[in-house]
Amino acid sequence: MQHVLFGRAGLRVSELCLGSMIFGDPRELGASSDDSKAVFDRFAEAGGTFIDTADHYADGESERLVGQFVGADRDHFVISTKWSVARNGGVVCSGNSRRNMVRAVEASLRRLRTDRIDLYSLHVWDFTTPWDEVMRGLDDLVRAGKIVYAAVSDTPAWEISRASMMAELRGWSPFVGVQIEYSLGERTAERDLLPMAAELGLGVTAWSPLAGGALSGKYRGANGAAQRGRRDAAALPARLLNIADEVCAIAQEVGASPAQIALAWVRARTHGSPVVPIIGARNVTQLEDNLGCLQLRLEPAMQERLDAVSCIELGFPHDFLRTDYVRRLVHGGEEGSLRPRKPLPHPVAEIAMSSGVTKK
């Protein structure tokens, strides 16, 4: 597995991130401690170093298991965790407030058995906490050495942009990354979040890159037809099933699994820096299948087919601003005389290192 630079930061992460949300979760879709350890070990064996968790996953058991698995080899791994959500503790133990941030980071450090968190993210925007409180609180944690980098997840692009500008103007530690839902089945981040990430130089991690498993092929029968009559498939939108059909068709053509095709598409979507898919697996077999995407490069014609079946309308003002009429108006009647400003290039050239750190 190669390593990439995370946005404009100097942080080096593996090109796939292991999601540990189901580690230790006793529910049906969870993974036992033994299965979680086997998945973690195989990911590390494949060269993976980027681990994602959160304080409320499996009521904290996910963080405890990650801390246990990392053990004495702590410096080899980049640990990402989050705060904001609490299943227990009531209203005072949830949200984005500085108080909850301090409470949560101390609890995460204990569960992870570490003295610092590499990437600490606001998990979900609460629409109430002022950004100066959030950004100053994160800056204090960076200065105290309890976290190394700050990031943000599941928050509107305009809120992230406002917080980033505030941090820049006040000399506080900025966000270095953003975590979003992104897949062939969910491309609405292309309207604002991904262009914002490219402009601000944020690293991007994509959760649910298989659209909740819909793109893994499990809704198709042995004859290659989508099992749309199944109870679990019946609830899926027709658009998502059509995308899954095309993913499975391409998978059959190239001799890969549908999951590998879907992950390869996400990995090919660079927005200033590589998009890092967060892969989750209940067992080693599922993980092995996901790891196969690292050897897969989609032909341009196949990417075009996937783009076409999954395309979305960007909506106003994006589609309006791309019309020939508007482009002629803003360029003094001379269409094409000025090219739109491109996203910020990655500031660091490719690094040739024995550890496999590259800019893609």
Automatic annotation (TrEMBL):
Protein source organism: Paraburkholderia xenovorans (strain LB400)
Domain NADP-dependent oxidoreductase: 15-309
Keywords tagged on the record: Oxidoreductase
Protein name (record): Aldo/keto reductase
Gene Ontology CC terms, in alphabetical order: cytosol
Domain of life, source organism: Bacteria
Molecular functions per Gene Ontology: oxidoreductase activity
